[in-house]
Here is the input.
Amino acid sequence: NYAHNNEWCTRNFLNIGRVDDALALAQNLTTLPRHPKYNTLARRGSSSYYGRARLFTTLYMYERWQDMITLANTAVLEPTSIEAEKVKRLKYVGIAHAMLGQTAQTDTFKKELQTLLNHNISERDKAGETAKTKAEAEQAKDTKKKEADKNKAITKATTDARRAWDKKVRDCEQAIAALNGYTHLKNGEHEKALELLRKAGSVDRMTVAKCQQASGDTDGAIKAAAAHVKSHAKEVQPLALQVEILHAAGKTKEAQTAFEELQAISGSIDMQSPVFARITAVAADLGCAGPWKQNLKLRDDIGNRPDLDTLGPFRWQPSAAPEFILRDHRNRKFSSSKEFNGKPTIVVFYLGHGCLACAEQLQKVIDNYDKFTAAGFDILAISTDDNENLKQSIKHFDGKLPFTIVNDPKLEIFKEYRVHDDFEEQPLHGTFIIDANGFVRWQDISYQPFMDTDFLLTEAARLLDVK
Here is the structure.
C-alpha cells in the first residue's frame, strides 16, 4: 500500500502541476531500501518500479530535459540490466538529449537501442525456427491427422514461440521511432516527426497534436487536443498545450476559454517548467497583462484539517540506530556511538554457536569480507551466546574472524532493534546497513538469516552512493 499510495500521490502532483513535489516524491520512492523479495526494479508495483516510472513521466511531460539527463547520471535513474527498464531509460534520456540538440548523445542511445533490437529480432527468429522444427517432428509422428491440421499446429507453435519476443522487439522499435521523431521535431521537420511519433507508442498526445498542427493539419490538431483534454479533465499539462495550439491557430476566443480554465486550477503549478513559461509568453494576447497564475484557494467543504506535520514526515527518512555497548569474547568493549560514527557498518544479528544457518551466513560474510571493506564498510556480528558460548562460536571459524563479534545474551539489543518475536519470546535473525551517521538505511528481520551477500553489498553501495 505504501508504494501504491505514494505513486498515486505523485500522479496527482503531476496532474495539478506541482512538478517539483512530484519529482521529489518519485525520487524518494526510488531511493527507498530495496529487497530481493519485496522491492526491486523488476517487481511491478514496488516503490522502486513506481518511483522510476513516475520520475520519467514527470520529467518528460513537463519537458525538464536537463534534469532528466542530470538524474540519469545518478543512482536515481542509473542504467539497469532489466531490459524493459533499460529501453525506457534509453528512450526518455535519448529524447532529452534530442530536445537539447545534443545529436551525438542521441545517436549513442539510438545505436544501443538498435543493437538491442537486432538481438531481439535474431532471438525471436531462432525461437520460431526451433519451435517449428520441433513441431514438424511431432506432427510427422501422427499418421492419422489431416495435413491442414498439422500445418495449423506447426504455425501455432511457431507463432507462440515468437510471441515471447514480440513485445521486446516492439518496445525497441517504438523507442527508436520516438528518438528519431523528437530529433526531427527539434530540427523543425514536423511532417517527418509526426510520422515517426505516431509509431512511437507511449508518447505525449499533446506533443503529437502540436506536431500535427505544425505539419499543416490545424483542424485535426485542434480536434485531437480537445479529445485528449476531455479525457484528462482538470490536468494542467494538456490544458496548457491546448492553449498553445488554439493560440497558434488564431482561435483567440477558444484559446481564452481554455486559458481561463487553466487559470482556475493554476494555484498549485510550478512556473519554472517550460510548459508554463510558454503560457506566460502568450498570456498578454489572451487578456492577462500581469502574472497569470492565481493564488491557491482551498475549498470550504473539507472539514477540519490537521496540521500535516503532525501526521509524520511527508517522505520516508531513515531512523537512528539504537545505541548500545556490548563486549566481545575477550571482554573488549564495543560502543556503537563511537564505532558507527564516521564509517558505515553491516550489522548481523545471529542466534549463537548452535545455529547452522547462522554459521553459513557468517561464512558468506567472511568470504566477501574484502569486498565489503574495499567498498568502505565495517562488519559487526551480534550473537545471542553467553560469554563461554561466544568463545565457542569463534572456534567454529578456527579463531580467524576478520570482523568483530559481540554478544547480547539478555537480548536487550535484539529487542531494541526489533530482532525479536515478542509473542513467541524468541530472538530472530537480522541484518542491517547502518550509515556513517548512525542511521539505519536497510534491514532484514526474519526467521531465516539473510544469505544474499551480493545483493547486500550492491544495495549498501547504492544507498550510500559508494562508487
Notes: Strands lie at 319-320, 325-328, 333-335, 345-350, 378-383, 404-407, 420-421, 426-427, 429-434, 439-446. The longest strand covers residues 439-446.
